[in-house]
Write a structure and sequence with these properties.
Blueprint: H1 6-13, E1 36-50, E2 61-74, E3 78-82, H2 89-96, E4 104-110, E5 116-118, H3 124-130, E6 134-137, H4 141-144, H5 151-161, H6 167-180, H7 197-209, E7 215-219, H8 227-244, E8 247-252, H9 255-261, E9 264-269, E10 272-278, H10 279-284, H11 289-296, E11 346-348, E12 354-356
Parallel strand pairs: 3-8, 3-9, 6-7, 7-8
Antiparallel strand pairs: 1-2, 1-4, 4-5, 9-10, 10-12, 11-12
Amino acid sequence: MSEFSFGDRLKQKLGLYKPPTEEIVEAVDIPTDPEVLVAIRNLKKHFLVAGGGLIFNRAPIFLKAVDGISFDVKKGETVGVVGESGCGKSTAARAILQLLEPTSGHVFFRTAEGEMVDLVGLDKRELREMRRQMQIVFQDPSASLNPRMTAFDIIAEPLIIHKVADGDELKIRTIELMEKVGLMIHHAFRFPHEFSGGQKQRVGIARALALNPSFVILDEPVSALDVSVRAAVLMLLRNLQREFNLAYVFIAHDLSVIRMISDYVCVMYLGRLVEIGSVTDVFEDMRHPYTRALISAIPIPDPTVKPERIFLEGDPPSPVAPPPGCNFHPRCPIATSICTQEEPPRIQISKTHFVECHHVTTK
């Protein structure tokens, strides 16, 4: 007999099934530091990919895209998230903003009144009000901009939807936003196909800033741009952060970009955060073997210096069938039997430095 009820199997068939949360409710650590703007606690996002049918009664199979991540984002600071393709970075970003409904976990957001509100579980009306404080800039500016709308209409749209401005005030605020991101007035009535890649991304950034948010997720915002344009957009993002005291979550593959723009770094592997720390912690005192391998791949511009590269064997396991114990153990050069049997604990190295590993290495 299946452990799933007829109603559950029907929801699975329709793609509406959500796994039940654990019966034991654990105490959630809500930060008391007033500088913490966003606190993510044990956030999970699992997708039903097979099974759970009404006829054959097969057990459902879930893809564990995000499997219990926790970190804080402080006001005016940048948290970089780095990892291989498919590790769950973008899914985590969308789950944090509730663009995807989390399977479980909590996302606490500090309101203007200083209250920490859990975004998970808010109804549509409440979430709509909170969205004014949270925005996202997507990786591909061409795909994220409506090709039938002008730059002016794209940037003004949030102001209209949330009834923030209209008439002359709408025009003034939209032009001011364009100027903030380095666009000219004569760009206002151009369509997306008339812009370069860097200009399209500037339109996306202006749109994200239209409602004066305090928190912005940047999902690989410069990966599709040329190197020179990339530098200009990164400088723009840093200037805007200082001017508006923005908190960023910056997702990227390029570790050199992460090092330049981030205050804190989260290293992600197969849906989990294996190392968290300040830029100095992660880049100068890395403890997890996966972090060591990633950083060893950073190119050094001096041809006389030949750094030791760490090559990982094999490909990352499938998130549909992750290995038992530590997810990283099939590729880890220091794995032992305990790594194949037990999930690694989160070990605190310092006040800002945490590592998930059975064998925390030292230099």
